[in-house]
UniProtKB/TrEMBL annotation:
One Pfam short name: HAMP
Entry's transmembrane regions: 21-42, 155-177
Class in the EC hierarchy, top level: transferase
Protein name as catalogued: histidine kinase
Location in or out of the cell: Membrane
HAMP domain segment(s): 183-239
Length: 464
C-alpha cells in the first residue's frame, strides 16, 4: 500500500498528527467563534433594549392631551423609529378609553405572536421576525412598543456564516498543511523504516548492516543511534554464535573421527591382533571423557548467557585465602599468596569468584613449568579491590591477547594440542566476570609469563 493511501486512510503517523491538529484547530475556532457570536449578540441585543427604553421615553414626551403625535415622535426620537411599532391605551373620565396605533402597527399586531422560551420580553411575529416588547404606564396611559431585533439577527447570521466559512477553509487548508508538515517531520522516521525493511528482507546479510541516522529531528537521531547500537549488538551476537557453532563442530568432529577410527581398527584387526584392543579402548575412553567435558562446558556457557548472579559484600582476604588453600594441592606448581593483613571488602558473588580464581590457577598451571611458581596477589588499585594471578609460563603474544577470552581460542594451536583443555575455560571466566560487573585484563609478566588482573566492584550496580 502506497504512503499516500496510508495517509488518506489515516494509518500513518503523519495522518494521525494532521487529523488531531485539524480537529483541535476546528474546536478552538468553533469555541472562539461561538464565544464572539454570543458576546456580540448579547451586546447588540442589550443595545436594542436600551434603544427601546429611549424610544419609550421619547414616546411619552410626544403624547399631548392623551393623544400621541407620531410625527413629533419620529422627529424628536434620537433613534430611527422605522422598525418600531407602538400601541397606546388611554383611559380618562372626559374622553373615555381610546387606543392609538403607530403606522402599520395594527397589521403588525394581527400577525401570530410566539414567545421565546426563557425570554418573555422577546416575541416572534410571523412574517416580521423577532421583536423586543417593552411596556410602561404613566398617568393612566399605557404604552407598548415592539422594537425589531432583525438587525441583530442579521449580524448574528453574518458572524455565524463567516465562522462556518472560516471553519471550512481552516479545516481543509489546515489538514493539508499539517499533513504536509507532519509527513516532512515524519520523513526521517519513514526512511529508517524503509532501511530496516531492506535489511530485514535482504537475501545476503553480512551482519555489518546499519541504519542511516538523520541529523534531525533530535528524537529520530537518537532513535537511529540506539537502533544501530542494538543492531550492532545483535549482529555481533549472531557472528559469535556462528563462530561458536563452527568451532564447536570442529572441536567435536576431531575426537569423533578418532573414536570412529579406533572402532573401525578394532573391527578390522581386533581378532588377529587382540593387543591393540586395550590401547584403542583407552584412547576411546580418553576422547569420550574430553567430549563429555567439552559438552558440559558448552552447556554451562549456554546457561550463563541467560542468568544473573546474586551479589553481596564479602571479605576478599578470607575468600581468596580459602580458595587458594583448597586448590593448592591440585597443582604441581608452588603458589605464592600475597594478601593484605586487614579485611578487604567487595561486592561479588562468592561462588563465581572462587570459580574465576580456580579457572585462572588451572590455566596458569597448564602453560607453566612445574617448578615455576604461580603468584596470587590481593591489593587495591585505583580504589578498587584487585586480584592478580601471575605465572612464569610460555606467555601470550600481543596479537593474541585480545582473543584469549573467546570460545575455543587457544594460543599456539599446534603446541596447545599437547595441553589438555577445551578452550572454554577463559570464555567461562569472562562471562563470570561480566555477571559480577567486574573487569579482567591480561598483561605480560616480566621477564616471562602472563598476568591476569581482575578488578572487582565495591558497590552494587545501579538498578541492582
Amino acid at each position: 500500500m502506497t504512503p499516500m493511501l496510508n495517509f488518506i486512510k489515516g494509518r500513518s503517523n503523519a495522518a494521525e498528527i494532521a487529523r488531531t491538529f485539524t480537529v483541535m484547530m476546528l474546536i478552538i475556532i468553533f469555541i472562539t467563534g461561538l464565544s464572539v457570536s454570543t458576546v456580540v449578540g448579547w451586546r447588540l441585543t442589550h443595545n436594542r433594549m436600551d434603544d427601546a427604553a429611549t424610544l419609550m421615553k421619547s414616546l411619552q414626551r410626544s403624547v399631548t392631551d392623551d393623544d400621541p403625535d407620531w410625527n413629533q415622535w419620529n422627529l424628536n426620537s434620537p433613534i430611527n423609529t422605522k422598525d418600531t411599532y407602538v400601541k397606546v391605551d388611554t383611559a380618562t373620565r372626559k374622553r373615555g378609553h381610546h387606543t392609538y396605533y403607530s403606522p402599520r402597527a395594527k397589521k403588525f399586531l394581527k400577525a401570530r405572536e410566539l414567545t421565546v422560551p426563557g425570554f418573555p420580553a422577546i416575541r416572534y411575529r410571523r412574517g416580521y421576525g423577532l421583536f423586543y416588547r417593552l411596556g410602561a404606564e404613566k398617568k393612566r396611559v399605557y404604552y407598548e412598543t415592539w422594537t425589531s431585533l432583525n438587525t441583530v439577527i442579521h449580524i448574528f447570521k453574518l458572524i455565524l456564516g463567516d465562522m462556518l466559512l472560516v471553519l471550512m477553509i481552516c479545516g481543509v487548508l489546515g489538514y493539508f498543511v499539517m499533513g504536509w508538515l507532519a509527513k516532512r517531520l515524519n520523513r526521517p522516521l519513514a526512511d529508517l523504516t524503509r532501511a530496516a525493511s531492506r535489511i530485514n528482507h535482504a537475501e545476503n546479510v553480512s551482519y555489518h548492516e546499519a541504519l542511516p541516522v538523520p541529523d534531525h529531528p533530535a528524537e529520530v537521531h537518537h532513535l537511529g543511534l540506539e537502533i544501530n547500537e542494538l543492531l550492532q549488538s545483535l549482529n555481533e551476537q549472531v557472528l559469535r554464535d556462528h563462530q561458536f557453532v563452527s568451532d564447536a563442530s570442529h572441536e567435536l568432529r576431531t575426537p569423533l573421527t578418532a573414536i570412529r577410527g579406533h572402532i573401525s581398527l578394532i573391527k578390522r584387526r581386533g581378532e588377529q591382533h587382540p593387543e591393540i584392543i586395550p590401547r584403542s579402548l583407552n584412547f576411546i575412553d580418553h576422547e569420550s571423557h574430553r567430549m563429555e567435558t567439552l559438552v558440559e562446558s558448552l552447556l554451562r556457557l549456554s546457561r550463563m548467557d541467560h542468568v544473573d548472579v546474586a551479589g553481596g559484600y564479602y571479605d576478599l582476604t578470607k575468600l581468596v585465602e580459602e580458595t587458594v588453600t583448597n586448590y593448592r594441592e591440585n597443582l604441581p606448581q608452588p603458589i605464592r599468596l600475597h594478601v593484605p593483613p586487614s579485611a578487604l571488602t567487595a561486592y561479588v558473588n562468592a561462588d563465581s569468584l572462587q570459580q574465576i580464581l580456580v579457572a585462572l590457577l588451572s590455566n596458569a598451571s597448564k602453560y607453566s613449568p612445574t617448578n615455576a611458581p604461580i603468584t596470587v596477589t590481593l591489593t587495591t588499585l585505583n580504589g578498587q579491590p584487585t586480584v592478580t594471578v601471575a605465572d612464569r609460563g610460555m606467555g601470550i603474544p600481543d596479537d593474541n591477547k585480545p582473543h584469549v577470552f573467546e570460545r575455543f581460542y587457544r594460543v599456539d594451536q599446534a603446541r596447545s594440542q599437547e595441553i589438555p583443555g577445551t578452550g572454554l575455560g577463559l570464555a567461562i571466566v569472562a562471562r563470570l566476570v561480566d555477571l559480577n560487573h567486574a573487569t579482567i585484563s591480561v598483561h605480560d609478566n616480566q621477564p616471562r609469563g602472563t598476568i591476569f588482573t581482575l578488578q572487582l566492584a565495591t558497590t552494587p550496580p545501579v538498578g541492582a
